[in-house]
Design goal:
By secondary structure, the protein is of the alpha+beta class. Helix 5 crosses helix 7. The model has no long low-confidence stretch (mean pLDDT about 85).
């Protein structure tokens, strides 16, 4: 590669980096409007979803894509992901469970401790007597939790004490249990794994639709794990089946109206 070609490549990459920066900046601005929209909807008693408006946004994106020479399917896919996430953010503002609201109130002034609490909850790690972090009955070093949460050891210890002392959070965090997740070992056991992302994770009935397809093909389910939308930006539904899925089953899962993408492992 000549010096001229190398310089051209570097310049193109810098241009791409700048475009990416602008894209993320615009996306952050768009997502930032979710809270304000949720507040207005709550004040006016409007429903969370406005599917007519959503389809208008998608069609407008497709039209702009055609004008700019971009594949409309790509534009639609990106826009539907953005819409799904915005709806989810609005739902978090309006429909958060009471315990989640309480958790956020307790740690409102301590974002680092809130990160620790989220790590404990997502990993099923409980807080034992004296603020010990436990996986079942096995002790987990505070330094390991601190590394996962991106904080220091003292923050983990302070979080544990705060959780234990709280009347609502204490019973919850002292009884968490870890989950024996089969996804990583499924292929060793001859099992199948399918990971499903919904177009809108806030809508009910997704698991029912997926289970209906699997039942028609006489596929048994060994495990289902749904990400908590309050903890995961893009929640997924992971289904472990009694055998790897192929052909027609996958096609029908992808054709479900509530499903955005299907990844088979």
């Amino acid at each position: 590669m000549s010096v001229h070609e190398k310089k051209g490549l570097e310049e193109l990459r810098k241009e791409i980096d700048e475009i990416d920066r602008q894209l993320v900046s615009l996306l952050a601005r768009r997502m930032g409007l979710a809270g304000e929209i949720a507040r207005i909807k709550e004040e006016r008693g409007k429903p969370l979803r406005d599917e007519g408006r959503e389809e208008e946004v998608v069609e407008r994106a497709r039209g702009l894509a055609r004008e700019l020479g971009l594949d409309p399917e790509v534009a639609e896919a990106v826009m539907r992901v953005i819409i799904s996430r915005m709806v989810q953010k609005q739902a978090e503002k309006l429909e958060r469970p009471e315990w989640w609201e309480h958790l956020n109130r307790v740690f409102r002034e301590y974002p680092a401790q809130l990160k620790v609490a989220k790590v404990l909850f997502s990993r099923g790690l409980r807080v034992g007597k004296g603020g010990k972090i436990l996986c079942g009955d096995m002790r987990v070093p505070s330094t390991q939790v601190a590394k996962e949460a991106g904080v220091d050891r003292r923050t983990v210890e302070m979080t544990a004490r705060t959780l234990l002392e709280d009347d609502k959070l204490g019973p919850l965090f002292s009884n968490l249990q870890p989950l024996p997740y089969l996804k990583g070992v499924a292929h060793h056991l001859g099992l199948g794994v399918v990971e499903i992302t919904a177009g809108d994770a806030t809508k009910p009935g997704i698991l029912h639709e997926v289970a209906g397809v699997l039942s028609r093909f006489r596929v048994s389910v060994r495990q289902v794990v749904a990400d908590d939308p309050h903890l995961v930006p893009y929640p997924k539904l992971t289904v472990v089946t009694d055998r790897p899925l192929k052909g027609k089953v996958i096609e029908e899962l992808r054709a479900l109206p509530s499903v955005q993408s299907v990844i088979v492992y």
